[in-house]
Each structure stands twice: as C-alpha cells, then as structure tokens.
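Show me any protein, fold above all:
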Amino acid sequence: MFRMPSSVSRQAPLAWSSELVTSHNIFSTVPDIWDKDALWNYAKAFQLLKNNPPEQRLDASMPYSMYMELEKRWSKFKAEMDICGNQRYPSLGYNSLEQEVTVTTTQSALHEYAASELRGYIADSLKAYFSIHKLEARKGIRDNASTSKTSTHREYLRSSKDPDGSFSYEDDEEGVILRVTIEAGSTENYRGLQRDKDMWIKGLDAKVVYMLEAKRRNQERGTYGPIDYRNHTWFVWRRDMREPITSMDTPPTVMLLPTAIGLKMSDFLSDRIWGSANLPDSDVYFDGDEFMRSLTTAICETAMERLINFVLPVSV
C-alpha cells in the first residue's frame, strides 16, 4: 500500500539565496496609502517566499491590491531565478473574505507521504466499489492531486488555495464539480482549521473537507472532530453540518481507528448522478494501523531533515 512517488516525496529544497529582504527594496514599490502593518506583512510574506525555510506557514492580513502586487513580485522573482512554474512550494494563496494572504513553504516528507497515501486509499476504495457496482458514470471522477483552486463567486471572489489533494466530478450537465479536498499538515489553532474549511466549502463549493493535522496540545474539540490517534488528528467536515459524522464520535482515547473515517462513495459523484444511480452507499476503506506503518520511512526522513536544518548554519 505504501506509495512514494519520486516527483513528490524526493522534492529538494528550492535552490535560491537566503538573502534577507530589506524594508527598502520592499516598500519602494508599493503605494503610500497602504498602512504600516500591511506593509510589514507584505515584507514578511515576500521574505518567506524568497528564503523558503522548511515547514513554515504565514497567515497575514493585507488588502487584495497588495496581494496582487505581492503575487506580481513573486512571479517576477521566480522568472529571474528560473524557478519551474509547476514547483509547488513555496505556495501563495489568498482569502478574500478575511483579506488574508497565506504563504506555505516547502513541506516535510511526512506531509507529502501522508497526502499521497490518503489519495491512494480513496482511489483503491473507489476501484473496488465500482468493480462490484458497475456504473458508466464513474468515469467522471477526477483525481486532481494538488491543483490550485480559485473562487469565482460570493464573498470569496478571487480567493485561491492549494489542497494537498482533491477529487472532482465531471458532470455532463453541471460541468466540473469539486467534491472532496484533502489537507495534510499543521495549522496554528482550531480556528485556523475552521477558516480553511469555510473557504473550501463556502468559497470553492467542496462537498467534503478532509484534514490530517499534526496534533497540538490543548486542541479544541468540536462537533465534527477531531479524532486523536498516535499524535495525529483527523477532521472531516461536510457541506451540510446538520448531518452527524458517526466516525467523528469516537472517543479520543481509542487505540485504533475505525476502518471508515467519514468519507462515502457518494461523495465522489455529483448529487444528480448519485441520486439516479440507485446504488447502496459505502464507506471509503481506511486502515489506520497500516497507514501509520506505511509512514515509518517518511517519519525517519522528516526527523533527519529537521536535524540537518537545526545543526547546519543558515547561509547568508
């Protein structure tokens, strides 16, 4: 079951200078009407993009016009440094409702393996289910990997976000519909998780948001999660929050995860197609023990990466 795609798991840090960004070369290009706090957020965001230190995330407030300037400057820098256009990290996103920019730097091997494994479980479950329940419409299911998404409506207009994985459905009448998004990583608090979830569901029309986060102390526990398991935390949110997710009712003291964690086969088809299919719904299979065993290599590699980053001095 263990998957280790070379294009993802062996990703090397970007080879550009760790030169610090000064206030002069940042502020000289931006309008005077932007306030001081936003200017400093701009400077911090651009410095993080340039330096790309491992496993960092910055959420910072700034108006959309400043974000566009940041995106323009970042694109110019990548072109000057000959950085490949499909290089995922560092990534830059924006939440229009919160007027907040998010910068995420290169992630650990553990992060990438976890996302890849989760997508693998989903793909295997879908294949097994539709090998029994023949349905021509299953061909509309799309594994989008980590393709960036941009909102075009409501209060999230022009917001953009990069998932660690996503599945959409190509409906003949409704077009391409985002169904499930996956995020694996860490965030600063439970409110941060909810903010990400709201953007996916309300701004990008995802039906289900599935999150695997590094466990933090004093984690708040909500109606829809988390489950705690071997220092990792699972969250599953659905578009209709009135529907309970039974797997999320599992007490945090359990030693084993259930074989199902809140994802259904119906989540991956459009509502129109599923409603006419007349098929029994089924859980996406998941083996928590196998999942954690399969991550052993990634855990060791991540530990080594962090040791090297701690011991070796940062070049300036």
The chain is about 35% helix and 20% strand. The chain has two domains: 19-106, 109-297.
